Amino acid sequence: CVGCVWVCVDIVEIKTFLGIVLWMGLNPLPSSANYWSKNELYQTHIPKYMTRNRFELLLRTFHCSNNQTCPRGDKLYKVRGLVDLLVSKYKICYIPGDNMCIDESVIPFVGRLSFRQYLKNKRHRYGLKIFKVCINDGYTIGFKIYAGQEAIPGVAVSTKIVMELAADYLDEGRTMFTDNWYTSVSLANELLSRSTNLVGTLRSNRKFNPKDVINAKLKKGEIKSRQNDNNMVVMKWKDKRDVHMLSTKHKDNLIETTNKRGQKLLKPQMVIDYNKAKGY
Fold this sequence. Notes:
By secondary structure, this protein is of the alpha+beta class. It has helices at about 10-25, 50-60, 75-95, 155-165, 185-190, 210-215, 270-280, and strands spanning about 100-110, 115-120, 125-135, 140-145, 175-180, 195-200, 225, 235-240, 240-245, 255-260, 265-270. Strands 1, 2, 3, 4, 5, 6, 7, 8 and 9 form a 9-stranded mixed β-sheet that branches. A hairpin with a 3-residue loop joins β8 (about 235-240) and β9.
């Protein structure tokens, strides 16, 4: 084109570009143009480091991989290197304690994408589903982007996800906390074989659940439980509704606690520990 000046990109400029992208995530504005606005309401320090035209040019052409070597059907190939680098850095920066929580969240996205998900129970219903393993202080120490095709013969997808995310932290006596999409007797046995505990809410229709516990009719505050030879406990507790749980490290004992209104009540230790870990 006439009048174009082509300037080579170097490492310093790419690091500056990525820093600006991260800063935009921490300081959201209505549009990317606002970061270069002279309006006092939107003013930032970003223009000191890069012009808007240069940023938009790099944004349009930024690639993390070689398109010509992309395997057929690999939907995450273009970002896999960057994602793996980020996860490796997350793991280096923090050594987890005994308890870890595995759950999923959604990155809001409304564009066209074959593996965009709709999750009705999330604040942002459309976006990319991310499986995450989190530890205390809300730190995400690992994650996996869901792009479909996770199923393998003979293994539940939920079990596969947990074992992959927990792979670097097994055989050390840790505890994985999961919600009822993941929790099952089969997953508990898999983790026990790797010296790892499981605590989580449980769906009543899971395979190998003790039927006398699941079908028990309880009044508010009552508990019904069953323990197997591996010290795995499946418990049903009647709160405002039926609560089914599984743990490989708890009994069905009740602990006196205080609710938000200052009222004292009895609650299973299993439930108390689960609620605390889910806050991760």
